[in-house]
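Quick entry, no commentary yet.
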Amino acid sequence: MTHCSDNDEQSDDGAEKPNKGPKKRSKGEKHVSFPPDEQIVSGFAEHRDTDRKVDSCLTLTEVMVAYQQSCSRHQVQPRAHILQQLQQGVCVGGGVKCLDLQGERLDQRSCEALEVVLKSLHFDFINLQAAQLEENGASSLLDMILYYESTTHLDISDNSSMGTLCWRALAHLIKQSVRLSRLDVCNVPVVDYPAQSLSKALLTSRLTVLHLHNAQLSGMPLYTLVGALKSNKALKELHLTNNLLNRYQDALHLGDLLRYNTTLQTLELSSNVVADAGLEELCDGLRWQTAGVRVLLLRNNQITANGMVHLAKALPVLKVLQVLDLGENLLGNEGMQVIREPLMVNCSLLQLGLAQANITCEGAVALAEFLAESRQIQRLDLRQNEVKVGGLMALCLALRINRSLASLDLDHIPPQEQDEFLMETQTRLQSEITQHCLANASRSLLAADISGPLQADSVSTT
């Protein structure tokens, strides 16, 4: 087996360079080795599965002993945290829930000592957050995860010292693995070579979920990423929070992604600077979709009532979007007035997030008018807004008509009225709203499905 080499990388024009067979690295003197790519994806898969069947007969105690022996051979101390996980874990058919290596300092020999564990067990999740990975050790570890198809979810966040060898091995893993379905690379700069290698790997990747929070993607890295994702047919969730994505070129690229990609179902862009102009680009992209994004999360993006004008134009023609979160944006009552009638006409939206959106009773009345007309809305989040008795009364009256809303999220302790009678009325209205929502949930059998992407920490009235 050979470690992935430069031959595995694509050339600048996108063509694959020829693979000239196994080569040894001139530095690092790794003790793990891997077969050529064609064997990994074809002939070797059969051999790997045979190894897995043999090793799946091992108990966790036997794996723990084998790991200790491997550490002795590699002249490193067994990690107490790893031994503890093997001792307390539950193994079902060779599968274990998690291998948590977060915060462990993994040098090259420590990584190589882990091979017996990765060979013997399959993990639902391998956590390498802040593992202080050394260059050669990290690339060896990623090669092993690929070779043994050790996990379906890998988190390699908070490893800012990842170098070229590590990124090359990660790209190889993304491109070749048949089991890896989710990857988290957060709080790591994905610029220049990392952005290029990641994007090339995504052209043929089987990943379905990708988290790239706080990865400095604004500008050329996002352009490179979107270029690959336009033709990607596997990725279903893309999470890009806190990347300083702007209302200009970044939003334009994301709009293009929505126009050309029909596979992506969840796009999270919270805590960026998309703003009103950027929302216009996103809405233009959404209007083209007959299949594609069902969940769009835009919390904390400096969007105002002016941006609702663009959303109002798109809402009547949207056919796919089911969940829209606009929380933590200063939409105000004016914004609610702008989207009130378009929301009535829309036939796809099931969940709408408006938490901390500067809404008072006037905005709540506008939303109540929408609720009275809607036949499909299932969840509305109005937490952390100044909705008092007047707004609650309008919402309550609307719910006497509405038969679809199964969850209306309001603050557990609402903004206090000064008058005692108004306070009692407020409590009564919240209780009645809760009962209406429960009745709708029971009627439509939605009670188990309403705590989705808009879930937050504050308490719902339901």
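second:
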Amino acid sequence: METSFALTGKGYVIVAADTTAARSIVKMKVDEDKIKELGTHLLMAYSGEPGDTVQFAEYVERNIRLYQIRNLYPLRPPAAASWIRRSLAQSLRSRSPYSVNLLLGGYDKSEDKPNLYWIDYLGSVVEVPFAAHGYGSYFALSLLDRYHDPEAPLEEGLATLRRCIDEVAKRLVVSPSNYKVKVVDKDGVREVEI
């Protein structure tokens, strides 16, 4: 019953993911961080099969860090999205494909603009102004479609995200209780309370 949301605004990307780790009908953990910081200006929220998600997220994190060490500069968000898509597509054609869905958010310092990418387990990637994965997406996408403003300040973006979280809590039978929210902008990545 995983849920993750992300949206862009004027100079920022907000990424939120529930903190519940569950298997079937059993909650294993309620403080799982499903948002991986891939760099100073790059975040990735992941959901899917528990083993696959953690292994793939760590694989991506290590390889993006390796790229930065070898080349002395970090991958920009569009390049990171392309590399992640290629890695998922390659695993899909192997005997052990990863079953992960991702939301990749970053701030491109060279172009001074936020980027958000929706990536699914089939290796599809799309740059979007807002996105969601999981059961909560059924309720949140219509709210994001109606209330998202690409020129909104951070406070308004957080209010839109709060609307999505409240709607999921109200309408989803097994809704997650806690969310972790992170923002990436020109100053880097930080966690915010909602």
